[in-house]
Amino acid sequence: MTETGGRVARNRRIWSGSPPRLLGTMLLALAATALLLHAGDTAGDHVPSYVEWTPDTIANASSGDEFRGLLLSRHCAHCHGEEGFSAKGDTPNLAGMARLAIWKQLLDFRAGKRISFPMNPIAQSLSNKDVADLVAYYSKLPVFYDPDDKRAFPQPAPDPVQKGMAWRLINFGDGERGIPPCQACHGPLAFRPGAPALLTQNGPYLLQQLEDFATGKRANDINEPMRTIAQLLTDAERRALADYYGAGLGLNPGTGPEPRQ
Length: 261
Ligand code: HEC
Ligand code: HEC
Hints:
CATH topology of the domain at 160-255: Cytochrome Bc1 Complex, Chain D, domain 2
CATH class of the domain at 160-255: Mainly Alpha
Helix content: 40-55%
Shape: globular
Bound molecules: heme C
Radius of gyration: 21 Å
Order of helices and strands: HHHHHHHHHHHH
Structural class: mainly alpha
Distance between the termini: 53 Å
Strand content: under 5%
Number of helices: 12
């Protein structure tokens, strides 16, 4: 059983019945239990995440104490930055990240649904309350540019061809290949629950995530939108998108380059 904060996932069933009297019945019971546990394990592997967007989950993810979150964030600042902006491009920025997105990723790391060498043990050491408090803290950190803080964001802007490629995909997608516009879920105008804004995220981190979704190494997206989309993108497109967001160009959606035909 895995705690999801709001709910307990029921993907492992436990065999139950009247107490067996004969050895044969006991053996049968053992075999049945093994089968059911095995079936449960297999089902668990196919569940991308134990987090579900129920009113309970949303309430839990919104119940944190910001100040306690600040104290706990000392354990995170070494990698994610004092102000939630990392000094290394391959470590994600957490400042201003949507509440539900941080909540879900920490629970997925904790349950082993998303694999990361540093994050799995760190998330396992956090209680539900710790997670909620960290969510309250990081989601409220400002995303303004601070020249005194050592941070990797924003990186230099990509060339105009890359810019145009990314801008088209973010705003229009590609109907022929069935790629929806990124902004339909990642904002800034519309957000899907659990979809983080990519607008102030580091480019190298974004590229790694797109590659991991494409190969299935990262497989914790509910209903697989990202595994599907990342696979449909070419290498050049994944890089253009990561570099575009990583340079902070997504922050001003109205000022993107005109699409080139
Ligand atoms: C040793 C460095 C390190 C420490 C300490 C650390 N993290 Fe991380 N964190 C990472 C790395 C690296 C990733 C990216 C993992 C990947 O590549 O999938 C990450 C990913 C995350 C993500 C996912 C972000 C996203 O955009 O999906 C969250 C949320 C997060 N960390 C929160 C925390 C919190 C909260 C703490 C402190 C309790 C913490 N981290 C401590 C290195 C660290
Ligand atoms: C149908 C909705 C939808 C669309 C369209 C979409 N995404 Fe996502 N994306 C999501 C969701 C939901 C997540 C969070 C997955 C999870 O729960 O782990 C996500 C996660 C991501 C991440 C990981 C971010 C992080 O902080 O770890 C990247 C990178 C990403 N998307 C890039 C894109 C790009 C680029 C596009 C456009 C080509 C796009 N997405 C289109 C829903 C979408």
